[in-house]
Amino acid sequence: MPAGYLPILIYLPVAIAFIILLLLIAKLLRPSAPEAVKLEAYECGVKAGSDARGRYTVRFYIVAILFVIFDVETIFLYPWAVRYRQLGWFGVAEVAVFLAILVVGYIWAYKKEALKWV
Question: What pTM did the predictor assign?
Fold first, then answer.
């Protein structure tokens, strides 16, 4: 076993034991008085109108997934921006192709009316 991992193997159990110890101390010291009012869901001072387990339309999930996909794709622009000067025109062409694919995806989603909320 490499000697470089020895501090990690020592630190890991100490850190886990420290977290468990702090949670146990907090459980012993904190006041515990559960009441019906304290156990209710808090909605900014307004009583909950319905059950939280209601159904959502599939369109909500589609918009959320599309947002995550396109948001994650734009993260790939960051390494390109860091190495912009070293990549030169080849890097500009790569990013142009990448953005073109991204725009085609947006157009496809728009034509399928996946971004239509209502």
Answer: 0.44
